[in-house]
Amino acid sequence: MSHRTHRFAALVAVAALALAGCSGAHGQTIVVGSQDYYSNEIVAEIYAQALEKGGYAVDRQFRIGQREVYLPEIEAGNIDLFPEYTGPLLQFWKSSTTARLADAVYSELVQAAPAGLRVLDQSPATDQDSYVVTSAFASQWHLTTISDLKGVTVPLVMGANSEAQSRPNGPQGLLDTYGVTCGFTPIEDGGGPLTVKALKDGTIQLAIIYTADPSIMANDLVSLEDDKGLFLASHLVPLASDKVDDKAAALINKISAAMSPSDLVALDARSVTDQLPAATIATDWLKDKGLV
Amino acid sequence: MNLGETFTWLATHWAGPGGIGARLAQHLLLTLAVVAVAAIVALPLGVLIGHTHKGAAVVGASVGAARAIPTLGLLTLFGLALGIGLRAPVLALVILALPSLLAGAYAGVETVPPAVVEAARAVGLSETQIVWRVELPLGAPVIIGGLRAATLQVVSTATLAAYIADTGLGRFLFIGLKSRDYAQMVGGAILVIALALILEVTLAATQRLVSVHVTHPRQ
Fold first, then answer.
1. B80 touches chain A (CB under 8 A)
2. What angle do CA B191, B197, B200 make, to 5 degrees?
3. Is the pLDDT reported for residue B219 higher than 90?
4. Is the Cα dihedral A241, A247, A250, A254 positive or negative?
5. B194 min Cα distance to partner chain A (Å)
6. How far apart are the first and last CA of chain A?
7. pLDDT, position B186
8. How far apart are CA A107 and CA A98, in angstroms?
9. Chain B contacts of A203, Cβ < 8 Å?
10. Chain B closest-CA separation from residue A185 CA (Å)
C-alpha cells in the first residue's frame, strides 16, 4: 500500500517536473511537502489539489520524515509549501519560548520565521497532545476541563509512553500546572489500542492521545480542555516560501479557515478506518466545502 | 553519548522504586516466575511423551511452530484481551519458554538407551519408578539444557514486559529510546546482558555437575 503510494507520488512528481518545463499560467512550480504522517499527508494533498485547480503547477514531495529532516530542506528553498503545527514549529526555531496558548504561539511564530519563509493563517484545526478520559468517567465526575480533575476523589493513574514520565506533559506537568496528583503507568503504543483498552478497563483513568486521533470518537472518549495551557498549542499552519504568491496564499488561507478541528478528525478517520488514499480524501473534502 | 556517560548512569541510579536495584529484582523475579510456570506445564508433558514414545511427532511440529511466534505480537494480542499489567507479558513469555522446555524434557527422556529402560523393567521396576530412578536422572543434563535455553530466552525477552507494565529492566530501554537518553538505554542493555550471563553461567555449571554425576555416578 505505502509502496504504491510512493510510486504514485514519484510518478506525479516526475509528471509535475515535466510539466514545469512548459509551465502554465503562473510560471514556477510550487513544491508541496508533507511529514511522514498520514494526517499531515492528507492536508498537504488538499493544498496541492487546491493549487492545481487554481492553475499552479505542483510537485508533491510527500512523506519526507520528521522535522529535523525536512525543515532544513524548506529553509534551503527546496520545498515551498508544507503543513506544519504552530507549537512544535515554534519550539524548533525558538527553543526558549514560553508561549503555550494558541494566539501567543502564533504571533511569536510569525516573528520567528527566517527570511524567505512565512507562516500563513493558522487553522482552527489542531492536532496536539490531550488528556483523554472515558465519557463515563467524565460524566461521573463532571469533567470538561483539566482543572475539573481537582474534584476527582479517587486515585488517578495516567497511562502513556514512558517518556511522558519525565516530560512536562506527564504527571509532573499535571501537578505543577493544575495541582492534580496522579500515578503513572507506561503503555508504549502511543495512545493506541492498548491504551484505549486500559482506559475502558479502568486500569488507567487518564491517557495522552492526540486530539485528532479518530479513536477518541470511535471509543466514546472525551478529550479534556487544556484551560491553563499545559500542552503546547499545535494548530495546523501552512509554512510557505516566497514562491507562494499572494493568490496562492489566499487559496491556502481559505482552506485553513474552512478546516475545523472535527474536520481534521474526520479526515484522519477516513484514512485509518476506511483505508482511503490521501488523494481521494482530499478531493472529497474540497468538494464538500465547495473549495474547488 | 559515550561509554563514560553510560558508566556514570550505571553507577548513580541504583536507589528508589524506579532504580536499578528494584528493576533488576523485578526482572529476575519475572524471569523465574515465567520459567517456573512454563516448567510446570512443559516438563511433565515432555517426560510423559518421552517415556511413552507417543505424540513425538506432535511435539516436533508444535515446538518448531511455537518458536516462530513473535513475542511482541503475542504480547499486544494478549494485552488487548487481558488489559495492561503483568498478565499479558507473563502469558506471552510462558509461551516463549514452552518449546525449549518441552523439547529438552522430551529429548532427555527419549535418548535414554532402550536397553537400560528394558533392563530396569526386567528387574521389576514399575513405570513410575523407571521414570524417577532411570529416565529422569539419565536425562537430567538434556532437561537442564532445555531449562537453560528457556531461561536465556525469557530473561532477554522479559524487557518487553515494560511495553505495558511498570516492570523490569525494559523500562530503561524504552525511556532511553524515546527521550534520546542513550546512556540510560545502553546502561539498561548492559544490565540485561549481565543478568543473562549470570543465569547462563549458573545453569551451565549445574548442567555440567549433573552430566558428571550421570557419566561417573560414584564421584
1. yes
2. 140
3. no
4. negative
5. 24
6. 27
7. 95
8. 13
9. 83-85
10. 6
For an interface test with B, the pick among A157, A172, A194, A203 (most B C-beta atoms closer than 10 Å) comes out as: A194
Choosing from A173, A200, A223, the residue where a domain stops is A223
Decide if A206 is inside a domain: yes
> Does residue A51 contact residue A39 with C-beta atoms inside 8 Å?
no
CB contact under 8 A, B163 and A187: yes
User: Is B168 within 8 Å of B192 (Cβ atoms)?
Assistant: no
Mean pLDDT value across chain B: 92
Residues 150-209, chain A: which have Cβ within 8 Å of B?
Answer: 159, 161-163, 165-167, 184-189, 193-194, 197-198, 201, 203-204
Measuring CA to CA, how many Å separate A93 from each of A71, A72, A208, B49? Answer: 10, 11, 25, 67
Q: Confidence band (pLDDT; 50, 70, 90) for A25?
A: very low
Q: Which of A165, A169, A161, A156 is nearest to A203 (CA)?
A: A156
A142 and A205 both lie in a single domain: yes
Task: Look up the domain containing A145 and give its range.
Answer: 129-223
- Give the separation between CA A135 and CA A139, rounded to whole angstroms: 6
DSSP code per residue over A120-176: -PPPS-B----EEEEHHHHHHTT-SBSGGGGG--SPPEEEE-GGGGTSTTSHHHHHH
H helix runs in A22-65, sequence order = 38-53
CA distances from A175 to A172, A234, B16 (A): 5, 22, 20
Query: Do residues A133 and A111 both lie within one domain?
Result: no
pTM of the model: 0.77
Instruction: Report d(CA A182, CA A174) in Å as an integer.
Output: 8
Q: Which three cell numbers stand for residue B14?
A: 541504583
A75 and A165 share a domain?
no
Closest Cβ–Cβ partner in B79, B171, B178 for A194: B79
Write down which residue in A190, A223, A256 finishes a domain: A223
CA-wise closest residue to A9 among A40, A34, A37: A34
Same domain, A49 and A114: yes
Domains in chain A, number: 2
Indicate if A186 and A219 belong to the same structural domain: yes
Measured between its terminal Cα atoms, the distance across chain B in Å is 52
Name the least confident of A74-83, B32-41, B56-65.
B56-65
